[in-house]
Design brief:
Blueprint lengths: L9 E3 H11 L4 E4 L6 H9 L3 E4 L3 H15 L3 E5 L3 H16 L3 E7 L15 H5 L5 E4 L6 H13 L5 E7 H4 L2 E3 H13 L11 H13 L3 E5 L1 H5 L3 H11 L3 E3 L19 H7 L2 E5 L20 E6 L2 H7 L3 E4 L2 H14 L9 H22 L8 H13 L6 E5 L2 H9 L8 E2 L10 H11 L5 E6 H7 L3 H6 L4 E7 L33 H6 L4 E5 L2 H14 L3 E6 L16
Parallel strand pairs: 2-3, 2-4, 4-5, 5-7, 6-7, 9-10, 9-11, 11-12, 12-13, 14-15, 14-16, 16-17, 17-19, 18-19
Antiparallel strand pairs: 1-8
The structure holds adenosine-5'-diphosphate.
Length: 571
């Protein structure tokens, strides 16, 4: 802390780190304090940075990564050394795989004691290596401003991702004068370096437009990259000017409303199976998009990929690659199309085929959803939740979803109408993200309610963080689909139930009827136990209007879901 007069006053490294973070525009941090970083968190708070203190670095890391995605600015995770850093790797790796801007800062052991078995000693730079774009160890207080700006800049520019800053405890204890600190901050700010992204050539734009114009069955696909680029207006322009149907990836949902007349989500198999040109904006042709390969896609489909990362385009070898920020590239495309417009129109055979299929599938699904099944299957409560969410209007809540059946069914039934309002298990299928994501969403978008629809297994990974919800009084309603286990009831064949531990519960099962709603009540939050449509409706009405932390424990028939949800072929 400052002593004597400004300029010659001494400040410690904790304050210098906080100053650098504040100077770089960081407004929130997530983490778990302890040796040697407690003062760092306290100093950050004194400078107006909100520090959200978690129980576990894993959840705090997931929160930081989701915060990065929702705001487009790196989410910052603070951890202690050794095991704290290892727990934080969950968040850092999740950020890397999802391409979300995230910075982990960990304290580490005293540099003079490395190799001697110091308290929580670990080679943390080596540990983070597989999961970061960039990492650096600050070996001296003078390096701090440069290091802080570098990790933030690398995380947020080019293809976003995870970065790591290691600060040994002896460095955290170093001091300098305020005058020296300000000079270091000024100099480091001048040296900031944002990764440059190539801009797409006119030639490639012209080729793309020609392919789109000639296409008989074009499709626009967009994903998290388009969401992070905040390209929703440009996508809307492209879709509406050309009349091309669109398909969002799970987290692309909401960039255009699911209810849009050109949404092909309910005709997904037809759209991807028959399209001849697919313009893919900020989405990788990975497992979520069936690798862009037959049999799901036609073997002759021409992919036009728009991605900020040149390496992604080199990897997929599409018909055409447009490297650049999605918003900027789409702006150029839209401008060129506007100069010589075309539009497929409702009577175009491709549009008719898609809209007919959408109507058929929606009406079949609505028939299923209309049934009042008690004990609850997945569809009946999901429909009630969908209607309650739609009833909230705008600003729409941010939806957090994880679990096998719960997430699969929720993705088809719940409706997204606004950009960046869906967070789910993502590219890595990460379970355990739930409460971290809820907390990130609540602090990143304080005007929105957050609604989590979670399987009981997914919820269990981070359930202790309901205390964090209550402590910060965040407007989060967590709905737990409680079917008593991973995938629900015991589905083993009788011949598999043998051996000395055959009387143990099945590996997939939890305590039946677990009272998850009481967990939040232990901390002063509101819990509900529901098993009928009326009970669920009443709990939703009350908790949505209260905008206070709540858990709704929904009793689901343990045999309602399928093992592994829609991924059974991989189990
Ligand atoms: P989804 O899960 O929605 O399919 P992915 O995470 O697979 O999306 O893909 C996101 C892609 O978006 C990544 O390849 C990433 O490089 C890219 N990306 C990230 N930011 C931008 C941006 N600003 N503009 C264009 N592409 C981006």
């Amino acid at each position: 802390m400052a002593e004597s007069t400004p300029n010659t006053a001494t400040i410690d490294c904790n304050l210098l780190v906080a100053k650098a973070l504040a100077r770089a525009g960081v407004t929130h941090m997530f983490g778990v304090v302890g040796i040697p970083v407690t003062s760092l968190a306290t100093r950050a708070v004194t400078l107006g940075i909100r520090f959200i203190a978690f129980h576990n670095e894993q959840s705090a890391g997931y929160a930081a990564s989701a915060y990065g995605y929702l705001t487009g600015r790196p989410g910052v995770l603070l951890t202690v050394s050794g095991p704290g850093c290892v727990h934080g790797l969950a968040g850092l790796s999740n950020a890397a795989v999802n391409c979300w801007p995230t910075v982990m800062i960990s304290g580490s052991c005293d540099q003079n004691d490395v190799g001697k078995g110091d308290f929580q000693e670990l080679d943390q730079i080596a540990a983070v290596k597989p999961f970061v774009k960039f990492s650096v160890k600050a070996k001296d207080i003078n390096e701090i401003p440069n290091c802080v700006f570098s990790v933030l800049d690398h995380a947020g520019s080019g293809r976003p991702g995870g970065c790591y800053l290691d600060i040994p405890s002896d460095v955290l204890h170093q001091t300098l004068t305020e005058l020296e600190a300000n000079k270091l901050l000024d100099d480091a700010e001048k040296n900031r370096c944002i990764e440059s992204v190539k801009s797409v050539s006119n030639d490639v734009i012209a080729k793309a437009i020609s392919a789109i114009r000639k296409a008989e069955r074009p499709l626009i696909v967009f994903g998290k990259g388009a969401a992070i680029a905040r390209a929703e207006n440009e996508i809307k322009d492209l879709v509406e000017k050309t009349g091309i149907p669109f398909l969002p990836t799970p987290m692309g949902k909401g960039l255009l409303p699911d209810t849009h007349e050109l949404a092909a989500t309910a005709a997904r198999s037809l759209a991807i199976g028959k399209c001849d040109v697919a313009i893919v904006v900020g989405a990788r042709l990975n497992w979520l998009l069936h690798f862009g390969e037959p049999p799901k896609w036609s073997k002759d489909v021409k992919f036009i990929l728009i991605d900020v990362d040149e390496g992604e385009i080199e990897l997929r070898k599409p018909y055409l690659g447009l490297v650049g920020d999605a918003k900027k590239v789409l702006k150029v495309l839209n401008k060129e199309i506007k100069d010589d417009p075309f539009c497929l129109g409702r009577t175009h055979p491709w549009i008719e085929a898609i809209t007919t299929k959408v109507k058929e599938n929606v009406s079949r699904m609505e028939g299923q959803l209309a049934k009042e099944v008690v004990p609850f299957n997945f569809l009946t409560p999901m429909r009630i939740i969908r209607d309650a969410i739609i009833g909230l209007g705008t600003p729409a809540p941010i939806l957090v979803s994880e679990g096998a059946n719960t997430m699969d069914v929720g993705r088809s039934v719940l409706v997204q109408t606004e950009p960046r309002t869906r967070l789910d298990a993502g590219t890595w299928g990460t379970m355990g993200v739930g409460l971290g994501y809820c907390i990130a969403a609540a602090v990143a978008s304080p005007d929105r309610l957050v609604v989590a629809v979670e399987g009981d297994s997914g919820f269990g990974f981070s359930a202790m963080e309901v205390e964090t919800l209550v402590r910060y009084q965040l407007p989060v309603v967590v709905i737990v689909f409680n079917n008593g286990g991973v995938y629900g009831g015991d589905r083993r064949n009788p011949e598999d139930i043998t051996g000395p531990y055959k009387d143990d519960p099945a590996p997939t099962s939890f305590v039946p009827g677990a009272a998850y709603h009481l967990l939040i009540e232990a901390f002063g939050g509101k819990g509900y136990l529901v098993g009928t449509p009326d009970e669920l409706k009443s709990a939703l009405t009350e908790s949505f209007s209260a905008r206070k932390p709540a858990v709704i424990n929904v009793t689901i028939d343990p045999y309602a879901g399928a093992e592994s949800g829609r991924m059974q072929h991989k189990n």
